[in-house]
Amino acid sequence: MNIAFLFYDQMTALDAIGPHEILSRIPGASVFRVARQKGPIRTDSELLLTADHSLTDVRKADLLLIPGGGNATTLSDHPDILEWVRSIHATTTWTTSVCTGSLILGAAGILSGHRATSHWVTVDLLSKWNALPTRERIVEDGKIITAAGVSAGIDMALYLTAKIAGEPVAHSLQLGIEYDPDPPFDVGSPDKADPILREALRKRLLARFTY
Amino acid sequence: MNIAFLFYDQMTALDAIGPHEILSRIPGASVFRVARQKGPIRTDSELLLTADHSLTDVRKADLLLIPGGGNATTLSDHPDILEWVRSIHATTTWTTSVCTGSLILGAAGILSGHRATSHWVTVDLLSKWNALPTRERIVEDGKIITAAGVSAGIDMALYLTAKIAGEPVAHSLQLGIEYDPDPPFDVGSPDKADPILREALRKRLLARFTY
User: Fold this and answer.
1) Is A74 helix (H, G, I), strand (E, B) or coil?
2) Rounded to an integer, what distance in angstroms lies between the CA atom of residue B39 and that of residue B51?
3) Which of A195, B55, B149, B183 sits CB 3.0–4.6 Å from B119 for a disulfide?
4) Could you give the 3-state DSSP secondary structure of residue A30?
5) Superfamily of domain B2-184
6) ipTM exceeding cut-off 0.90 for this assembly
7) Model-level pTM greater than 0.80?
8) Is B19 an 8 Å CB contact of chain A?
9) Residue-wise over A160-187: b if at least 16 C-beta within 10 A, else e?
10) Residue A194 touches partner B, C-beta closer than 8 Å
């Protein structure tokens, strides 16, 4: 089971590391952290991750995961990355994204006609690429699975693990990371949040996604 | 607000990155990722993180966070790290840990007489350092806050954010990472999991924590 994570500058670390903590522990998994070039990747929280492989090193994958980031759509200016995403998608069993990573799948032309989700602030932008924006935490359409904002990647990774390796493996990994969430506040989705706070956040985040 | 994360080889990435994604976005936060030496840190899922500072670079912090890892207790063999943890603790407003990171606080002598938690597999080991093992997801005792296994760090970080910066900031950050968890299975704590699977996992994880 070869799993490729796309890394890129200004990505959101948790979008990748949540699923990585789970998927990398599936028995038999080989994980490839791939970026335009091997080496350090500065995330949007300043933390440095490292890509172990360049795009040209990795030609196929059973599972592809694209994390989001504040500058996800500017990857449209990087045809080599979009071409790589398209070519890997042609080889996958599962093509997945977390948060605004779905905008990259969209820009790569992969979501046309497909139901997909994204961060709640950006989900409607998916229609730009003829995707069908869907406000659910995990959206599965054929072999494409997209997750909502950042932390939804953890839920998606467990869902995927059950599909790939069976429910007992998913259960063991969930128990291993003690994922019995108990958020101190019940404000983690836009319909639960204070409207004033929500709209301020929407405005601030959307400003990063101009076309 | 200076926030120091201890990084070390074979740490668990998500223990640190979950809280990092939240705490680093508190307005005015300055984050220091600190290890024995600056440079790459190989986590227990092979992912490389990077420490930006060495122990000797960082002499105080308002908030200290110690992530866990499969080899957390072998840090007892590293008196320089424990001495650093003790000296930083003397300067903090909050001293915190995620998962087996509490075993490092214990080994540093900080938990004696204090209630504390850890990963469900290792929580009872805290009594070795005269801590009072407490099976809760977040345990606050004075300025020491410990979180249970891996994913509990996300809940703790939001709890801490509200204390540090107020509830509106915590709410905004929770909504920003769309943390409205919906695990596909309800097996994330030992009392909810299948007993056979649970005991197999306990045996496998405990084997890493020998004294």
Assistant:
1) helix
2) 5
3) B149
4) strand
5) Class I glutamine amidotransferase (GATase) domain (3.40.50.880)
6) yes
7) yes
8) no
9) bbbebbebebbbbbbbbbbbbbbbbbeb
10) yes
